[in-house]
Amino acid sequence: MPGPMHQEAHVWLVVPESVQDPDQLEQFRSILSDDELARYRRFHFPEDRQRFLVSHAMVRQVLSGYASLAPEEWRFTRAQHGRPEIANPDTTGLRFNLSHTRGLAACVVTRDCACGIDTEQLDTRHHLAGIARRMFSSEEYRQLETLTGTALAEAFFTGWTLREAFVKARGIGISYPTRKLHFDVKNDRAIRVRFEAELNEDPARWQFSLLKPAATHVAAVALHTEPACEYRVVQRWFGTDHDGKPGPA
Fold it and tell me: Is 183 a residue whose pLDDT tops 50?
């Protein structure tokens, strides 16, 4: 069972491709809603279906550890810009957010605290500096211009996941002007954000954390908290004793 949630954010991780047992996959399908099953079946490629199935089953099973509901009983709705929210009554302020990419799925769970998470696979194939020029602050972009190879990929996906996690926690659309945010990353927990005045955001109400669950991936968590309220971010692997390596549930 999950531990206490007071001023904690629990991040659950799984490698979707690691779940290969047919009985386990069938059990996962059995707990999805009709809408989720329809979305699952619409994926053309098997690896995309696998990622969707395992990540959404993880959400349901994880949430059941925090409330007296079976995995198949969870109901979800979507906010204005598509962010999933829990629709079940009396779930004691539970909030969650999900992200998945090739090789990793991540779900953050909190109580009474808006949260967002993004995870990405480090990839040097794309024109990262060009994307950063459009999406990052000018200061961050200038720093990226001095980097190449793996260092560039790590810096880019750090800034990218932090922005994605913020946008998801805020529940706003993809048109948000992310160039008007500036992140100053000292280490995985010492992360400061500056907002341009027109965004009307209070930096003191935002807490960010970075996770490195694997050498090939980075994840970022954004929490909208009360000022001076520090949350502890706890990382756990789904389907293990919480300290083990990723594996099937």
Answer: yes
